[in-house]
Amino acid sequence: MVKPLIAILSPDTDMIATLRERLKDVCRIEPCTPTEDLNQQLQESNPHTFVADFRLIADGGHQEKRLLEGFQAQCPEMQIVLLTDQECPEPLERLAACSNIAHLHGSEKDQRIVVFLEELIPACTKEVSAAETSTPSNESTRVESRKTIDPEAPAESALIGITRRFETSTPKLHRMLVELEVAARHDVTILLVGETGSGKTFLSRLIHEVSPRNGEPFLHVPCGALPAELIESELFGHVKGAFTSAHADKEGKFVAAAKGTVLLDEIDALGPEQQVKLLRVIETGEFEPVGSNDTRTSQARLVVASNLDLQPLVEQGKFRPDLYYRLSMLKFEIPPLRERKPDIRNLVQKLVDQLAKKHNAEIKTIDDTLFAALLAYPWPGNVRELENVIQRAVIYSRDGVLSADQLPQHVLEGVAGPTNDPSVSLTNDGGNRSSLGRQIALTEREIIEQALFTNNFSRTNTAKDLGISRVTLYNKMKKYGMTKE
Fold this sequence. Notes:
globular; 22 helices; five-stranded parallel sheet; alpha/beta; 3 domains; 16 strands; 45% helix; single chain; Rossmann fold; Helicase, Ruva Protein, domain 3
């Protein structure tokens, strides 16, 4: 029997080589070249599955969307697997939501993408014969029902408990985690409330892992990232012709998750009609796909997350009281990082170890000046912001030493960005650091630093990108203390 052909469009040669080696007994792996005749290449080779790796695209995804739409029109039987970064461009997110494309999120060089494809591709090829005797939507259901990837999660998936995976030295958070672990082991809907970057997605995955459903899929639905008209299709699915771009039946996440877990992130983004349908799913498990009168039943467990406290939204008439009271029975509030100061030192040490390995940087010492500056900053972006700051410090480290010199100026100045907490001011001392001139200077410095990094610290190329002369660039670098002289 001829082995199925898998075509891969990707700059990640390591991934292609690994897949070739691991899947040589079940399929043939062939890389594609991003040329103008790519459509013709695929038509001639007629692959069973096409993997489009768009994790490193620089534009808004419009060209890539048109490319995939062309493949769908010319090769409707071909299974498409889309790889994007965690922050997927909206055109690609919309296309995946309205079609049978299997969409995987993951960072560049993420080896767990390889593991997922290693499981996904053989599953697709084995279903060729089964698809002939099944409904057209069965294959997409099986593809989407497989586990998704969390690039931030450890490689192991042993049930070692939430309190051991989400370590903390903050008593308030520790008590919350103990209670959360009890709820996680029962078949109940859980509401997580916390600021952006505080760890809601990570905690949701831990809830899934310690639950009896850990062998089933975990599916993440970012409600706030989807257009309002597509949220219902993403959750409940749709039938062909339900709306303009619905060219085929599509199973929603509640079906794709099977008996697993669905995370509804940014639940406050749902409109009134969607809230009614969600309440019905929570209470009875029943729903209808968009454009269909066929009632289906969800067996998935729900974890709901919000950046905002829902009670004020109820008072403002933006959130249904009955849904709020249904969700608030098991509500867990994740404290922001500024209320978890005892955790910062351990978090920094772990992040430094991970990021130093990622960027091939040798870090021998972490200076106390770095910890002092980090402890004084209010962290409106929470753990996610801390990770970005530490990554920058690791990249700019010298002689194996991390110090406050490698931190962004706004962190040193205590100039915090927007946050849901009104108690966090723009500065720590209430002085004039938030003046317009000060903030313009901070922004200009960070733009220059980013441009230098993008251009491998070539002043000539950086000046060209910024549209200024090399002399002007040098003077600005000298002004902000960015030169070695």
